[in-house]
Amino acid sequence: MKRWVFLIIAIVTAVSASRLAQAQSLNFGSGDTPIEIDADNGIEWQQDGLVFVARGNARAIRGDVSVLADELRAYYRQTNDGSTEIWRLDAIGTVRIKSAEGTAYGDKALYDVDNSILTITGKNLKLVSGEDWLTATDQLEYWETKQMAVARGNAAAKRADKKLNANVLAAYFHKNKEGETGIYRIDAFDDVKIKTAKDEATSDRGIYNVESGIATLTGSVKIIRDNNVLNGCSADVDLNSGVSRLHSCATGSGRVKGSFRPTKKPRK
């Protein structure tokens, strides 16, 4: 989980001239680290449209981060002091955003510099970093000012034998005492499913505390292990220890229900 944030921040850094550290916009003519762009079919400067277009295996490199696509479009505008600044960057076709921490994949990526929002869309949306991956069918987003990443549409997060699914996953970041940025919480909305090597749990909503390893589930909770089923209104599932605690409902009978089926031994 922790590596995702470094990959996402690296992506934003590549297209926004280190806004996370210096709060300034992308400008090809300034910044501590230059941005290098190349393409097989050349770079076109459309002055009337205020856009640079790079086509054919286009690549933009800033530091150890690369944005690759069939086509890159950088939209700029004039500032009051007479300089120019990029307000939007589009990557179109076979998009790959690479850093030392991992790679993001999609068909199209758009970075809105003014609102600090990165959106990746297309088929086979995927964010891969080491043993961690995040996927979605609709889009992946990173909201820089909110320090939040969102996966929409059949969203899934996985590490080793632990898997979290939902219609929408929202991951939140903060800095630890050592000053390192990492994911500390993931919110899951609608058709939530958590799967480990032993258990499968479903609910309407879930909150996963990455640091403690505990997922809190609410709404139509069901926990399944082997042939055993538990039903309740809320539950705490410890993904590290494998211990699940089901809680009673505040209304109705308030009782937790379970169905336990003994496993039949095969006849000799």
Principal-axes geometry comes out as: elongated
- Tally of strands: 18
Structural class based on helices, strands and sheet pairing: mainly beta
H/E series: HHEEEEEEEEEEEEEEEEEE
The percentage helix is: under 10%
Task: Look at the structure and give the CATH class of the domain at 2-145.
Answer: Mainly Beta
Percent strand: over 45%
> What kind of sheet is the major sheet?
6 strands, antiparallel, barrel
State the helix count: 2
Strand arrangement in the largest pleated sheet = 6-7-10-11-9-8
Poorly predicted segments: 1-31
Mean pLDDT: 78
Offer a quick outline of the entry:
The protein is mainly beta. 7% of the residues lie in helices and 60% in strands. The chain has two helices and 18 strands.
How is this structure best described in words?
There is one protein chain. The protein is mainly beta. The chain has a domain of 144 residues: lipopolysaccharide transport protein A fold (Sandwich), CATH 2.60.450.10. Helix content is 7%, strand content 60%. It contains two helices and 18 strands. A six-stranded antiparallel barrel has the order 6-7-10-11-9-8. Strand 5 and strand 6 form a beta hairpin. The longest helix is centred in the first third of the chain and has 15 residues. The protein is elongated and about 75 Å long.
